[in-house]
Design brief:
- This protein has about 140 residues and is mostly helical.
- It has helices at about 1-20, 35-40, 50-65, 65-70, 90-95, 100-110, 125-135.
- The chain has a single domain (about 25-135), classed as Cytochrome c-like domain (Cytochrome Bc1 Complex, Chain D, domain 2, Orthogonal Bundle), CATH 1.10.760.
- Helix content is about 50%, strand content about 0%.
- Helix 3 crosses helix 7 (about 125-135) and helix 6 packs across helix 7 (about 125-135).
- Bound molecules: heme C.
- Heme C (HEC) binds near residues 68, 103, 115 and 117.
- Heme C binds near residues 66, 68 and 86.
Amino acid sequence: MKTRIFLFSTMLIAAFAFFAFSVPQDQKKPAPWKIDAKFKAMKNAAPGDAESIKLGKALYAKHCKSCHGNLGLGDGPKAANMETFPGDFSDAKFQSAYADGELYFMITAGRDEMPKFDSKIPDEEGRWAVVNYVRSLKK
Ligand code: HEC
């Protein structure tokens, strides 16, 4: 009986050790962005109407969804390979943390694993439309 308990607990420990090492580590939380103050004050150059959100949605589907996910939860198919969590756009805390101009800056300039879209979405109003769409993802 004692041997069986011993064997059983050894197997249990081995199983735990196996899972502890095979489960990937959590993604890093993004560090604060350094954004020039002028972006905070920048006025959104796209009207926040349904048409602009529709354009933003189409651009988001093409350029952002693969990492940020359909609803902006940071769960797109490419997100699993990212070292840094892409953020949760549905979170009220995310939405209030940044002004429109700051989101515009992040999309335009990127950093590290977050690509820059100054040339992939060359139209400034298009990038502002993406900002409007990101706003619409708030829960
Ligand atoms: C290749 C994957 C990838 C694509 C494509 C991508 N992003 Fe990101 N994005 C990331 C990652 C990873 C981060 C976190 C990186 C960091 O903060 O250093 C991030 C960060 C962000 C942030 C800041 C989030 C926060 O909480 O600070 C915003 C806003 C953002 N992305 C918007 C967009 C938009 C809009 C698009 C499309 C125009 C886009 N991203 C395309 C991977 C991506």
